Amino acid sequence: MKTTANLSAARELSALLVIAQRDLTKLLRDRTRLGVSLAFPILLIVGLGSNLQALVGGVTGLDVVALMFTGVLAATLFQSAAAGMMSLIEDRENDFSKELFVAPISRVTIVAGKVLGESLVAFTQGIGVVVFALLFGIRMSPGQIASLLPPAVGCCLLGGAFGLATLAALPNQRAALQVFPFLILPQYFLAGVVAPLRGLPRYLDVISWIMPLRYPVDLTRAAFYSGTPAYRAVVTESPLLDALVMGALFVVLLVLGALLFEHRERSR
Q1: What is the CA radius of gyration of the chain?
Q2: Could you count the other beta carbons within 10 Å of the beta carbon of residue 94?
Q3: Band of pLDDT at residue 168, cut at 50, 70 and 90
Q4: Whole-angstrom distance between the N-terminal and C-terminal Cα of the chain?
Q5: What are phi and psi of 80, to 5 degrees?
Q6: What is the DSSP string of 19-39?
Q7: Distance, CA of 51 to CA of 47 (rounded, Å)
Q8: Which candidate in 16, 113, 151, 214 could, as Cys together with 191 as Cys, close a disulfide (CB 3.0–4.6 Å)?
Q9: DSSP of the chain
């Protein structure tokens, strides 16, 4: 009995890793996508960050470019993993998902493999953002870089689960392309990517609390600014609260996405 359970667990793990490897391999073969995906965060850090530094940097006393880097890094990881789940719809339209669903593995393993694969893709892009930030002159100690790893992983996984739950509910790729930007772009302003969430009107503050990207951004800043004088000015919540909310959201969105994806497949 125990041997059977071990074999089943090994089969599920093997399937999960194979599905994840497929998405990572697709990225490595598509260098155009990798380059384009780095253009937007670089423009935000260089363009918007530099302009804000000139406008308010002297008033706040903060390095606005570094502040922008932490927000953009979290948002890039989250958005890349979420948008990468568009491959679910592509697989559905190409009937590849049917082949996955007839395999003797659980539905959760299938979608978890997709989330893991797109998280690895996003993590690869995040490394590019960090390298660019160092070349651009943003000062980071080895300790700060190492401290970014756990929240970066959390950003990727939560983004993948968010993309799964969102895109699994949409009927086709056209609808996804229309709806998805509407779900992501407002979070850049209401989740603290551009600036810490302080002094918001009450109604915007309430909306901000329901933005999934809020918690990865805040956790990333907490890791980067830990032990520095700027910590209290740029971090709005407890890192423990951010991590707990991210963990709960990941589980809920992953299960919900798996159920929605299976429902879509059965109703075709």
Answers
A1: 19
A2: 11
A3: confident
A4: 37
A5: -65, -45
A6: HHHHHHHHHHH-HHHHHHHHH
A7: 6
A8: 214
A9: -HHHHHHHHHHHHHHHHHHHHHHHHHHHH-HHHHHHHHHHHHHIIIIIHHHHIIIIIHHH-S-HHHHHHHHHHHHHHHHHHHHHTHHHHHHHHTTHHHHHHTSSS-HHHHHHHHHHHHHHHHHHHHHHHHHHHHHHT----HHHHHHTHHHHHHHHHHHHHHHHHHHHTSSSHHHHHHHHHHHHHHHHHHTTSSS---S--HHHHHHHHT-TTHHHHHHHHHHHHTTSTTHHHH--S-HHHHHHHHHHHHHHHHHHHHHHHHHHHHT-
What is the arithmetic mean of pLDDT over 44-65?
Answer: 63
Nearest to 249 by CA among 73, 82, 76: 82
Q: State how far the alpha carbon of 119 is from the alpha carbons of 3, 96, 158, 161, in Å.
A: 31, 20, 9, 9
For residues 182 and 187, give the distance between their C-alpha atoms in angstroms, rounded to a whole number. Answer: 9
pLDDT in tens, 5-43: 566 667 667 766 776 777 667 666 666 666 666 777 777
**This prediction's pTM:** 0.84
Q: Which two tokens stand for residue 166?
A: 């969102």
Signed CA dihedral, 55, 58, 59, 62: sign only: positive
Q: What is the pLDDT of residues 199-215, one digit of tens each?
A: 777 888 888 888 999 99
Do the beta carbons of residue 19 and residue 38 sit within 8 Å? Answer: no
